[in-house]
Write a structure and sequence with these properties.
three-stranded antiparallel beta sheet, 10 helices, globular
Length: 353
């Protein structure tokens, strides 16, 4: 049954009260249909389909439009960790990387694991003030996965410019509901299986700032045949990398991008601004209900993620009642997206008592 104030219409009919988009998003009906068609096609045409690149190129273009960046400055990939390893590999030995304490491991661990990188972490609220002349890169999430806090992206960007540092922004918990401009940062990565509603295995990397302008790109450290300028001549031997950000493409999961093309199309139709207004209104409704029960959630209003201390033990009871949330760091985390409604929020509050 369609809820009275959910977005997306007939694209969603979950059998659960799904409030766990911070873990993974629901797949729209059109995306599920595209996946089924791609699977059926693979029975006769192989797992690269009849046109391996069409869905990935269309997804790249749709992501670029959502983030207000040219498609030529977007690469497709498979995971945030792989893209973080690429960014780490672009830094010189001895480079200092500044990051928030407790940010998501797929963002930070590749820097910690690379010999010669000096990873320094500070509280999120102190990130902009902690940038110093020796800082080469600031790596941080636009929205914290643990508790939904939104970074002061403008302050970090200005601090980076003042000290000659580059920025690496992870928008996995933001893209799809929080209005953003990828061009404002040097490297921007998005794991698209959460708020962008894509299948797992769909990841985008956008290049902003002056990266690649005039042909000066970082080294394409994991370039394979799909990163070649001439795809027909890039199967064997050392390739000539593409002139644009496609030089950083990974051989993509064809089925994942068949679904991603449709999911991103839905978000384009609805508009990120409308999704943002919808999600934050539901989150604020939930915060008010928690306050009425004497509970203090975090962060402050403005985030689609609401994490609450003191009630993590309710997760099993909620799961048994068909309500999907998650627990992170001892906090009960609820995440509100376009397929949710006030009915969902009221049911969650009623079950919390």
């Amino acid at each position: 049954m369609q809820r009275r104030d959910a977005l997306g219409g007939s694209e969603f009919a979950p059998r659960t009260t799904y409030l766990n988009s911070a873990s993974s998003g629901l797949l729209p009906a059109r995306s599920a249909a595209a996946l089924r068609a791609a699977i059926e096609e693979s029975v006769s045409h192989g797992t690269m389909g009849r046109d391996y690149f069409a869905a990935a190129h269309a997804s790249r273009a749709a992501f670029a439009r959502l983030l207000d960046v040219p498609a030529e400055r977007v690469a497709v990939g498979s995971s945030v960790a792989v893209q973080s390893a690429f960014v780490a590999g672009s830094l010189p030995a001895g480079a200092e990387v500044l990051a928030p304490e407790g940010d998501f491991s797929s963002l930070l661990n590749p820097f910690a694991a690379r010999p010669g990188i000096k990873l320094r972490t500070v509280p999120l609220e102190a990130l902009a003030d902690a940038v110093r002349p020796g800082t080469a890169l600031i790596a941080f999430s636009a929205v914290q996965s643990l508790d939904g806090r939104i970074a002061d992206m403008a302050a970090v960007r200005e601090a980076a410019r003042a000290h000659g540092a580059r920025t690496y922004l992870d928008i996995t918990q933001a893209a799809g509901w929080l209005p953003l401009r990828a061009a404002d940062f040097d490297f921007v990565v998005a794991g698209a299986f959460k708020w962008l509603l894509c299948p797992r295995g769909t990841t985008f990397m956008a290049f902003g700032g002056d990266l690649g302008r005039g042909g000066e790109w970082p080294a394409a450290l994991h370039a394979g045949w799909v990163a070649g300028e001439d795809l027909g001549a890039s199967n064997y031997g050392a390739i000539r990398p593409a002139a644009d950000a496609r030089r950083f493409d990974e051989p993509h999961a064809y089925l994942s991008y068949a679904g991603a093309e449709q999911s991103l199309g839905l978000l384009e139709e609805l508009g990120v601004a409308a999704v943002h207004a919808h999600n934050t209104a539901l989150a604020d409704h939930y915060r008010a209900g928690l306050a009425d029960r004497g509970l203090t959630p975090c962060p402050a209003p403005g985030s689609a993620i609401v994490s609450t201390p003191g009630i993590a033990d309710a997760e099993q009871r909620l799961t048994e009642a068909g309500v999907r949330v998650s627990v992170r760091g001892g906090l009960l985390r609820a995440a509100f997206h376009l397929y949710n409604s006030t009915d969902d929020v009221d049911r969650l509050l009623a079950l919390l008592g």
